[in-house]
Design a protein that fits this description.
Layout: H1 2-8, H2 12-19, H3 23-34, H4 37-53, H5 64-82, E1 101-102, H6 113-116, H7 138-145, H8 149-160, H9 165-172, H10 176-189, H11 203-217, H12 221-226, E2 228-236, E3 239-244, H13 246-260, E4 265-271, E5 274-282, E6 289-300, E7 303-310, E8 323-324
Helix pairs in contact: 1-2, 3-4, 3-5, 4-5, 8-10, 9-10
Amino acid sequence: MELLDRARSGDRDAFSALVEPHRGELRAHCYRMLGSLQDAEDALQETLLSAWLGLDGFEGRSSVRTWLYRIATNRCLNQLRSASRQPVTVPESLPLPEPSRLGEVTWLQPYPDVLLAEHPDQAPGPEARYESREAISLAFVTAVQLLPPNQRAVLLLRDVLGYRAGETAELLGLTEDAVTSALKRARVRMNSPQTAPPAPGGPDERELLDRFVAAFTELDVDALIALMTDDIWVRMPPLPFEYRGSEAVHRFFSVIRTLLGRIDRLVPVRANGQPAWGEYMRDRVTGVLRLGGVVVIGLSGDRVCEFTRFETAVAPYFGIPRTLD
């Protein structure tokens, strides 16, 4: 209470001490809402500014954490309702095979694990249905982006953070009936969970990743397909092309092999609690290794179930250099 009183009196250090313990989890919440780390950072900064300016209006009927979640969620909803995300223009000459479909989520960005490590997992409320690792995975975040804004907010507050229906209604300014209805519809639209992946950094994961790296750097298409589930997904945001299933993905990687021949180096990182790499190809003129993209894979049991390749614009979030000697 003393910290809050000092912050209200204009002490910025006291305000920082009040909100800093929640910064990391608020950023992750905004990322789940928006699917973009850049947009999440903007929403987080708006949240903290709004909290600073609105301290006098905080009556203490909820915890500071819940109050910050109210502000952050509504800032994200405002972004979603006013967003002018334009469809991606697909280059006519892009030499890729016919996709399985054109995806709807083209602004997705990966979330570096180093940001997850900045804050300890908060114990979710009693009604949470997702573990923190599942709720930050690319598959989960992608599925959330397909929900309407209110359903998205309700699902995250109820099933990830574990707020009760009454608390969620108060946070969003809705009735409990509206919250219950939105949650029911959102749960129907979410994908079924995959088989649990191996433990991060454990021997089973390391063995699988070693095999994947060997196959991927050589672009050994048959070896890659052998490591993948039958319903494997390949995505390339912001391009809308999506490939699903062994046959479609085999065609995709066969074309990539023809175009590139091989990947010269993979630099390991982690994103969304999943294995990831910076992908480098050697410049045929200078001999320099140039970053081509960031690859994140999802694991289901002892197989790769998702392959997502992002453009080089996300590299600074991971500290990945554009070139290597």
